[in-house]
Amino acid sequence: MSVCDCLPSAAQIRDAVLRFLQFATLSHRWGSGEPLLRDVEGKSIHDMDDGDDLENPQRFCVLAFRRGFSWAWSDRCCIDKDISAELQEAIGSMFSWYHSSSLALVQLSDVPDTGSLADSAWFERGWTLQESLAPRAILFYAQDWSLYKNNESVNYRTDDASLKEIEKATGIAS
Predict the structure, then answer these.
(1) Residues 6 or more apart in contact with residue 120 via CB below 8 angstroms
(2) What is the pTM of this model?
(3) Mean pLDDT, rounded, for 131-150
């Protein structure tokens, strides 16, 4: 046995790197006090003061980590809305970010766990279509950040009951 036989193959290295670089995205309705890029840039979201209305980004990061992700992307914290050219570029690349993500976590701030997806204002936003179609997998979380209806599916896009609710909310047949 040579030394080279013990080394990982190029395919094994590529797979390990791709697993490490997978990320989750947050889809939600922006709150007025949530941190912007300039508020979080160069900082750990968990080391910031509680007064910065950090509940959404902090809970999102915890949920992403619990689902095995080392990286999480939230448009609210990753886009500088003060620079119009950057904002336009970000809007244009939004589909790509969601499409590249391994999982989109959708926080429905206006839906209790016993509520209905169809009642959420999330479905009335212009971004909803791309944020629901682009990612490989999507999970909904109720206003208290509990998994919507305690549905343990790993992807609501493949769950029949969830698809029926999404169809009802959007009017688009699944």
Answers:
(1) 108, 110, 111, 169
(2) 0.78
(3) 87
